[in-house]
Amino acid sequence: MRDDSKSFVSLAILNRNFEEVKAGLSPAAAMDESNRCLYCYDAPCIQACPTGINIPSFIKKIASGNLKGSATTIMEANPIGASCARVCPTEELCEGACVLNHSTKPIMIGDLQRYATDWAIKNEQILFKAGEKNGMSVGIIGGGPAGLSAARELARLGYDVTIYEAKSKAGGLNTYGIVSFRLPQKVAQWEVEQVEKLGVQIKTNITVGRDISVNEILETYDSVILAIGMSKGPMLQIEGEELKGVYDAIQFVEDSKTKEITDELIGKRVVVIGAGNTAIDAATCSVRLGAENVKILYRRSQKEMTAYEFEFEFAKQDNVEFRWLTAPTRLIGDSIGQIRQLECIKMKLGDPGIDGRRRPVPIEGSEFILEVDAVIKAIGQTRYLELIDAFGLEQHKGVVKINLETYQTSNPKVYAVGDVIFGEGQGEAMVVSAAQHGKKAAYAIHQQLKNSIIETA
Amino acid sequence: MADLRINLAGIESPNPFWLASAPPTNSGYQVQRAFEAGWGGAVWKTLGEPIINTSSRFAAISFNGKKVVGFNNIELITDRPLEVNLKEIYETKKRFPNHAIIASLMVEPSREKWHEIVKRVEDVGVDGLELNFGCPHGMAERGMGSASGQQPDLVESQTMWVKEVAKTPVIVKLTPNITDITMTAKAAVRGGADAISMINTINSLAGVDLDTWNTIPHVAGKGAHGGYCGPAVKPIALNMVAECARNANINIPLSGIGGISNWRDAVEFMLMGATGVQVCTAAMHHGFSIVEDMIDGLNNYLDEKGILSVTELIGKSVEKYSDWGNLDLNYQTVAKINTDICINCNKCHIACEDTAHQCIDMLTDPKGNKYLKVREADCVGCNLCAIVCPEEGAISMIELPREKIAMTWNERQHALASLRG
Ligand SMILES: Cc1cc2nc3c(=O)[nH]c(=O)nc-3n(C[C@H](O)[C@H](O)[C@H](O)COP(=O)(O)OP(=O)(O)OC[C@H]3O[C@@H](n4cnc5c(N)ncnc54)[C@H](O)[C@@H]3O)c2cc1C
Ligand SMILES: Cc1cc2nc3c(=O)[nH]c(=O)nc-3n(C[C@H](O)[C@H](O)[C@H](O)COP(=O)(O)O)c2cc1C
Ligand code: SF4
Ligand code: SF4
Ligand code: SF4
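Output (structure tokens, whole complex):
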């Protein structure tokens, strides 16, 4: 029997769980922290930011009360700067490089970046203007960080830009994939608006390759940018994957951002398979949905985990348990097809594979059973191979091949940026690198098309 | 985008931010780097008979861990040959025709010497001259700098000598080491100055080393007074600018100098009557690139206020600056503590209790929570509690509704006199 009054209270609590965990800096804290920055010359924090934000400059502007200037400095270098303030692994990037690591403690660059961009969001600032139209057009497939970043720069350079986005909103994983309590949708939507206000057309609910043909795209535009990111998670290839209560992590998080929060997981035992960013988001999301026990299963050891240290800490604070060197072998359901048990096997690390990480090998006879109510698969993402093939682009295991300087693919008219070029030793899947790719591809396109602009002018 | 251009007594520059005559403007290399970074003008390091500088020249005051709150130096004027400076001024002007280059000059109080140097620097194409009557050390011992700047008649006559031959605008830079800045400012006006700039540095001794008992800084164990500048001197400089701005006999443009570190400081100086500003210490602390935020912040400020040209700021607050005798004695404010924001450090209580008017009570509510409350009837509205409060917004000073009509001290004395009449 369901107790409605109880579940009403619980749902209210669950909804609150999805509010942003970290509060923004207060004005006094921002003032203290910004005045602590040394304003270094040739500052290492700038070098460590993939988009090269002039960090001392934007921090000085907070200190002087020039918040509009501060937000402009950030967004100029990084069109996704408001989201990045929240989701960048700052200790690996800017903050990790801050000179104050050697003396006191690093400047909270991410928090200051958030302070300045929050100001711009709150005060409804429009920070950039579209360039004078140059008569050339670019079509962008995918409205995630990479596509938006390219669009912003191209619009400023005077291009007619159209983005095709399969979902009903642009923003990519920032809108649908990164949990709300780390990145509220409204932040990603503000960045989308900033791009739209430059006259960029965003055609949502259009899947290229299905609703519009690749050929039509190639014929319509002077250049095309492929910024489709990656697809759903792959299958585990073990028995029982079709059972009720088995989820794909990307879809699972997306539901938490787009659908009504449910009480389905309250008091339940959840196992998340994998130990990357997605696994952490799925695990902490489960905790917030009321799960009683959440375990992360990883077939390698803590050392090989791809989640960042801060994410690991965050999950531990949420009481997520980690089971290292453990792999799933079978999903076991009950008579009505609901998952009930997970059979696992212990692993040990063998010789290093091509990526340098030691390969996990099963320890024979070490199988054991975990009682579960839900299993979330977070073992990476698959590729949109079909679309990549439809474009006829050179690729390796779905990772589109590019010129590392220009982001040009094997088709000179087509550029590829963001997660679609990540993998197989190429880059790291981060919002900030996607933003940088987008910028660089925009400049490369401009470089390539500029001459024809001059000719036709 | 607001118009940031200024015109100070005929000297035009793309923005109001100039580098003051000091180490940042020592050479062509530096001034060109500064112009590239965005500075609108530069007053070249003071030219004159080359001198010898001491080793160990600067010291700074850190306050509670904040570096360079004040800066102290015993440096003299340029130690480079005049010909070298002139050549570099020429080259710099050629490369940056739209930026303002002003030659700062200091020679003995002799008519011939002034005539000679003015002609030489004007020949290389400067936009203006600044007469340095301000350095408080070294040059003063030789009858120059503040030694002549402290004597109104010397300021007047030397300005006059320069004006006899100068073809470009003449700015007289004043020393703050004087009781009433308007005395020397008026002397400069009488001498025919086209503008005045202030302040140069203030006599100072930065400190004494507790172990060696040497002065800070020291030169082989001996020290001498230096000149003080940087953020700590801003209120002194701002007052001097304001005093000149509101003086009816000083009606030439002002160039504000002293402790200007960002666009906000610049706005304050301009509101108080400066046509433009000069900066030294802030650039020495952080490099030329600080001008980026100065320009950007000023521009955003003007845009936000809907002001089209920065020149519209000049002097807008001057009429609000007056004599004590003109302040309304019947105006009353009181402190109000917002207990929601208060963090209960009790600093306001003890400040008022020990050193003001004993009117902040430490109370406990029925639930046992401590809170502070101002007894308004006893509060004199001195601002002390709000000043020591660490939490923005926890204490606000509230205007009380008027009980009596406005009455200044001067009006009161006048009324009393007419009663006695
Ligand atoms: C759960 C999770 C957590 C993460 N956490 C972080 C983090 O904390 N910090 C961090 O830096 N990075 C994080 N990442 C990685 C980051 O989200 C990605 O690297 C980044 O979003 C890549 O941007 P993108 O524009 O290349 O791709 P995406 O964001 O995936 O955007 C691609 C867009 O293309 C659209 N699209 C795809 N195919 C088509 C088509 N055929 N037609 C039209 N549109 C199409 C998609 O709908 C999508 O909107 C996380 C990722 C996940 C999954
Ligand atoms: C090291 C040093 C050297 C200076 N030399 C000169 C000089 O040669 N001529 C001059 O007119 N002022 C000189 N000044 C004074 C500055 O031009 C300026 O008036 C003063 O520093 C106040 O501005 P600030 O607070 O921005 O530093 C010097 C200041 C410093 C710190
Ligand atoms: S810390 Fe190093 S780089 Fe910085 S001022 Fe001192 S010596 Fe120069
Ligand atoms: S390295 Fe640290 S202290 Fe230096 S500019 Fe960057 S954030 Fe500021
Ligand atoms: S304003 Fe002055 S007198 Fe009034 S409460 Fe504060 S410290 Fe006391």
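The radius of gyration of chain B is 25 Å.
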